[in-house]
């Protein structure tokens, strides 16, 4: 036997034969020299190892490959060593002109998110070259420089979404594009979101227009381990392919070509626990926890086998080893144990969080972030006991209670977690929430107490750090990617809209439509104090009491009132405006037994009318306001407590068009009444009441054509028999016309024509006689412009035959703007629900997105054509509490064309008119806010004057 074994390495000569060799460029010579040096190093290392090998051992031919793998076995991910000195981005698009943004107020993300600079930003080569004061000699090198004067407006890093399904969950939703979840088993770590990424999804442009530049695209949560996520820029490179959207490709080492010189990039992995995997695979939490442990035990055995293998080969012990132990299906999970993968875990409840924390300590891997995580704020110490480091927490701001494990979700969670030194991220779960408005999640978190620096960081630098990409995104710093947003107002101001967005230094909107905002919007919003509410949330384990508390005094006097808005029959007017900001110029409002008595200045007869009275409670509004209570419409509020728990709902009506309605219920002549199924005291209703939404209008829930009769109810009432609980038992008939496949749209229209012009029976006949007489509205849920056009012609046809004017209301109306003139001419009102349309389905794809993509919004376009417009809430009731912000945002997007009084009407008197509810100025509730009016981020609801219930509730 020989003491040394020599192996012949194949020499690559290319496939051009023995042709004359052209002169090599200097760059290519350097690359070849580096490659040869590396090969020589590997050969010498192998040769050295082999010299010490036992004489009887035959070294495998794949030994060089295995030694490379062993050499890099514990290498950690990160940027190349020279990354910070780069002069050009790896994503740079040739031909991109350098850009100089001058006179900007720059939130850099640095110094714990507290650093703000006033100066310039130079973008070149896809990176940020200079920030702040830029010397003139630097600019002299640029002959073709695009200059943009920010005029003092705010610039920030691009928005980073840590939880998105953009590109894998189709927008609009189509069966052929649903690639979010695999149903092939609870544990699937080998799947990759990259393999499903649609680069032509309609949502990219919308999300970019909201300032989103980077997103972690995750598989869904049907599986305990759903697969590998990807980090993408929303701008594709010139190849227009999924790989070109990757921020940094983590797959150079795991494909068919093995490159030992490639630097490791962090990979991302999706885990999920709780209701989702349990429900899909008919498991319990115990089963899911075992799935995790079983998978990680398998990965652990592979890891230990690799470690043992490499320990032997590095000392030259090749005897009886066999092949390097690896398994392509499990290599990603092995890399989790090696610290090379950022684990993102969909997890809500304390029990699930505790399960995963124990599993991390059992198998010694870290979790990057718990997502959704509605109960994390209740167990911060549990998070701190996770292996390696406490996970970050990725949250919604106010979306909660849509299923049992989200029931204890709190708007104060971001603040509480931050106070416990845990990283807070606000995320979208796009398209669950439209990621275009991700900054709105940060705004709400700030409103409820998250410090402003952490709120901005929660959608920029913090998610960048959590995903392991904070070396290049999430900050406005020299050397970072040129991903920027120039805002029209402070990013935390309500309705903040990008004026321009840059990704890799490339402007993303060709002709942005800009809004003119008041000067006050350039300052960080002053937000209310919620210390008491936060403490009560913790005291009551996430479920503080929300029932209204009536004043103990018959007379309640609101002082220091800045403005008062009152309702006429079908409009809102400003009844009082303070003469000055001081107390003497402010107003006084007196209420007796829940009814408004008078409004006047501090020196008026109204103020003196209660002087000397003993039974009086005074409330200082601190420059606040009195305004009509708002109304929720379009959601299931009032008929559902937990949307995904059937036992907490009224349920869905039987639809005579597609199924048999029981004869005992009235058969085809039945018309279901929402009033019969109302549920009072739900948390969503009470939270809405605390937020100034004092009434709800709800129709029976249907997945079909004929819904039934709506009902108006008080959101603050305890039960149906309480005074004022039912505002109006029935107001309008509701139907829906949607392309559901069976029955066809044309069949649904035929049914509607029959109801209007043919013979009917039972309650259907009674109420459609009133519709045909023009006494009550017919409310039609429709989104498509084609369907709406047919409804316009049907109305004209019916009116010609009935010789009377009908009241039609469209609810939904995503494409209604296309027919704004025709709707105005036909006297058909529109309730936009949701108020900010989104192309969720094919029938909603032609939305009018509004600024900065279009000059007009859907609201302003409809109003321009004399259409009566109401603003509704999407299907789930949790969003009803945000009606005041929805209305304010609509007014801001209208660029000054909608007054505050008219804005308040959009979610009050207009909804009543369009939905057949009759409430006069004496009956309507009034809402008192401190620190500002109902439409301002600075205000807080502190009371409700309720003549319906005969009380003044104090919040």
TrEMBL record:
UniProt GO molecular function: hydrolase activity, acting on carbon-nitrogen (but not peptide) bonds
Listed InterPro entries: Amidohydro-rel, Metal-dep_hydrolase_composite, Metal_Hydrolase, Metallo-dep_Hydrolase
Residue intervals passing through the bilayer: none
Keywords: Hydrolase
Protein name, entry field: Composite domain of metallo-dependent hydrolase
Domain (Amidohydrolase-related) ranges: 156-492
Pfam families for this protein: Amidohydro_1
């Amino acid at each position: 036997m020989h003491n040394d074994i020599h192996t012949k390495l194949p020499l690559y000569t290319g496939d051009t034969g023995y042709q004359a060799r052209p002169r090599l460029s200097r760059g290519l010579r350097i690359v070849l020299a580096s490659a040869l040096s590396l090969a020589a190093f590997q050969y010498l290392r192998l040769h050295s190892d082999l010299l010490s090998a036992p004489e009887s051992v035959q070294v495998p031919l794949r030994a060089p490959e295995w030694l490379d793998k062993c050499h890099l076995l514990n290498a950690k991910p990160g940027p190349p060593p020279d990354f910070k000195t780069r002069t050009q981005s790896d994503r740079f698009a040739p031909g991109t002109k350098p850009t100089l943004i001058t006179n900007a107020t720059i939130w850099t993300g640095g110094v714990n998110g507290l650093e703000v600079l006033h100066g310039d930003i130079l973008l070149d080569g896809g990176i940020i070259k200079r920030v702040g004061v830029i010397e003139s000699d630097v600019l002299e090198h640029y002959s073709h420089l695009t200059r943009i004067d920010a005029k003092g407006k705010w610039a920030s890093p691009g928005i980073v979404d840590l939880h998105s399904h953009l590109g894998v969950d189709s927008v609009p939703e189509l069966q052929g594009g649903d690639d979010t979840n695999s149903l092939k088993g609870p544990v699937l770590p080998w799947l990759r979101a990259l393999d499903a990424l649609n680069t032509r999804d309609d949502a990219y442009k919308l999300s970019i227009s909201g300032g989103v530049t980077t997103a972690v695209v995750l598989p869904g949560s049907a599986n305990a381990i759903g697969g590998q996520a990807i980090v993408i820029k929303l701008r594709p490179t010139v190849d227009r392919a999924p790989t070109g959207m990757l921020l940094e490709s983590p797959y150079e080492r795991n494909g068919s070509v093995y490159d030992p010189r490639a630097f490791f990039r962090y990979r991302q992995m999706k885990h999920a626990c709780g209701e989702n995997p349990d429900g899909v695979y008919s498991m319990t939490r115990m089963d899911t926890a075992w799935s995790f442990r079983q998978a990680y035990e398998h990965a652990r055995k592979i890891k230990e086998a690799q470690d043992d293998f490499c320990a032997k080969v590095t000392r030259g012990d090749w005897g009886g080893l066999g092949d390097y132990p690896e398994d392509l299906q499990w290599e990603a999970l092995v890399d989790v144990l090696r610290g090379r993968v950022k684990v993102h875990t969909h997890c809500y409840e304390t029990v699930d969080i505790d399960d995963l924390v124990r599993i991390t300590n059992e198998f010694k891997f870290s979790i990057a972030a718990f997502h959704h995580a509605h109960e994390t704020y209740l167990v911060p110490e549990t998070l701190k006991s996770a292996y390696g480091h406490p996970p970050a927490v990725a949250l919604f701001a106010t979306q909660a209670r849509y299923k049992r494990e989200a029931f204890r979700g709190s708007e104060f969670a971001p603040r509480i977690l931050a106070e416990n030194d845990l990283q807070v991220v606000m995320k979208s779960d796009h398209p669950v929430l439209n990621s275009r408005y991700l900054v709105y999640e940060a705004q709400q978190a700030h409103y409820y107490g998250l410090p402003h620096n952490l709120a901005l960081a929660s959608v920029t630098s913090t998610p960048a750090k959590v995903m392991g990409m904070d070396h290049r995104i999430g900050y406005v710093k020299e050397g970072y990617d040129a991903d920027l947003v120039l805002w029209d107002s402070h990013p935390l101001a309500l309705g903040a809209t990008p004026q321009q967005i840059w990704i890799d230094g490339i402007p993303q909107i060709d002709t942005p439509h800009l809004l003119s905002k008041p000067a006050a919007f350039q300052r960080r919003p002053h937000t209310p104090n919620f210390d008491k509410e936060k403490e009560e949330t913790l005291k009551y384990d996430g479920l503080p009491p929300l029932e209204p508390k009536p004043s103990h005094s018959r007379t309640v006097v609101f002082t220091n009132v800045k403005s008062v808005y009152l309702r006429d029959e079908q409009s809102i007017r400003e009844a009082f405006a303070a003469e000055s900001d001081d107390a003497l110029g402010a107003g006084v409002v007196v209420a007796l037994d829940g009814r408004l008595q008078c409004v006047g200045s501090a020196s008026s007869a109204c103020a003196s009318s209660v002087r000397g009275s003993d039974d009086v409670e005074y409330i200082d509004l601190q420059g606040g306001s009195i305004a009509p209570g708002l109304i929720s419409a379009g959601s299931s509020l009032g008929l559902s407590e937990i949307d995904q728990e059937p036992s907490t709902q009224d349920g869905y009506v039987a639809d005579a068009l597609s199924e048999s309605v029981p004869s005992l219920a009235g058969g085809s002549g039945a018309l279901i009444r929402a009033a019969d199924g109302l549920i009072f005291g739900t948390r969503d209703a009470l939270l809405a009441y605390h937020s100034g939404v004092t009434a709800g209008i709800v129709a029976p829930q249907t997945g079909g054509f004929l819904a039934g009769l709506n009902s108006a109810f008080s959101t603050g009432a305890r039960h149906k028999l309480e005074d004022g609980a039912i505002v109006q038992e029935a107001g309008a008939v509701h139907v829906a016309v949607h392309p559901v496949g069976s029955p066809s749209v044309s069949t649904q229209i035929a049914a509607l024509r029959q109801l209007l012009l043919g013979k009917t029976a039972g309650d259907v006949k009674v109420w459609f006689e009133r519709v045909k007489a023009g006494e009550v509205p017919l409310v039609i849920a429709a989104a498509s412009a084609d369907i709406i056009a047919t409804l316009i012609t049907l109305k004209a046809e019916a009116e010609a035959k009935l010789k009377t004017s009908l009241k039609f209301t469209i609810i939904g109306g995503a494409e209604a703007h296309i027919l704004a003139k025709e709707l105005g001419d036909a006297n058909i009102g529109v309730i936009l629900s949701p108020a900010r349309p989104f192309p969720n389905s094919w029938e909603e794809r032609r939305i009018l997105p509004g600024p900065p993509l279009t000059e007009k919004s859907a609201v302003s376009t409809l109003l321009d054509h004399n259409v009566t417009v109401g603003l509704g809430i999407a299907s789930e009731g949790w969003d009803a509490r945000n009606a005041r912000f929805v209305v304010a945002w609509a007014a801001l997007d209208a660029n000054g064309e909608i007054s505050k009084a008219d804005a308040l009407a959009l979610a009050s008197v207009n909804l009543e008119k369009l939905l057949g509810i009759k409430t006069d100025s004496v009956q309507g509730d009034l809402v008192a806010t401190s620190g500002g009016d109902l439409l301002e981020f600075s205000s807080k609801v502190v009371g409700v004057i309720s003549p319906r219930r005969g009380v003044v509730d104090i919040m």
